[in-house]
Amino acid sequence: MNWKNLLTRLGREAIRAVERQIRSAQSAPPEERSAPSSGRSQRPRTERPRQARQRENRQRDHGGEPSPYGPASAREIADSFLPEFDYAPHMDGDADPGEVVWTWVPYEDIPEVGKDRPVLVLAHIEKDLVVVQLTSKDRDLDRADEARHGRYWIDVGSGDWDSRGRPSEARIDRLLRVGQSAIRREGGILPADVFEEVVAAVEAAHHHGL
Q1: 123: exposed, middle or buried (C-beta count within 10 Å: 0-12, 13-18, 19+)?
Q2: DSSP secondary-structure letter at 110?
C-alpha cells in the first residue's frame, strides 16, 4: 500500500490516543538511570587527532557550516514528543505556525554543522518554534531510497519562499525546535488545507514510529 494513502486513512482519534499514552508515560516518575560508581575518577574523554581529522573531512564533504545562532539554533525533538499544532500565520515579523521561514538546520549525521534552509513552522513550545525542513528536490525520484534511510516527505506545493517557484516537500519524520532569534526571514504562508495535511502526516509518522 502506498504510504501516502496510508497516511490519509489514519484516524485523528487514534493518533491522539497515542499522544495521551505518551503524556501519561512522561508524567510518571523517571527511573533511576545512574550506573554504580566504580570508585575510580573519570577522566574526560578527548577526541583523538585522527577522529578530529575525520570529523573535519565529513564537514568539508557536506559543505555545511556551524550555526551562528548559539543556543537558539535548531535541534531535534525527541521522537516521543508531539506538540499542540495550531494554524495561526501572521506576517508580522515573528514566525508563526503556518509560515515558511528560513533558519539554520543541522545535518543528522554531523549535528554541529548544517545549512540555511526553508522550514515550515508547525507549533510553539514556550517561546520556541517547532518546524519541519523543506526541500525543492523532487523526492518522488528517490522515495524508496529515502525511506530506507528513514526519511519521509510530503508534497506542499510552491510558494513565495522559493524565488524560482519550484514545488517543495516537507520532511514529516524529523521535528526540530528552534528559537525565534534564529529565524532569518519570513518566506510565505502555507494554505490551511496543506498545513493540515502536513500535520496529519507528521502525526501518522509519529504513530507508526517512522
Answers
A1: buried
A2: S
